[in-house]
């Protein structure tokens, strides 16, 4: 029983991390040093930023529920941004509230 409860707690922690947009190895978040480095490398007019807000169905310990994700990232090119959006839209397809790629530094 303790092992089962521990797994449920770990699953909840993983869901929380995804909800706030924590993903190791992803593109830099807007407002981070990584975005500033991209801006310095390609110039402010060549930076692309993407935003995504969506949900996916997830089986939980008691019942199925929806896992929400909100992320904003910056990219060196439009194809990188579109690939990132495609991946998120594929994984969080239950409800997609917004999915954008735009050129320029967000204000």
UniProtKB/TrEMBL annotation:
<keyword id="KW-0732">Signal</keyword>
<feature type="signal peptide">
    <location>
        <begin position="1"/>
        <end position="24"/>
    </location>
</feature>
<protein>
    <submittedName>
        <fullName>Uncharacterized protein</fullName>
    </submittedName>
</protein>
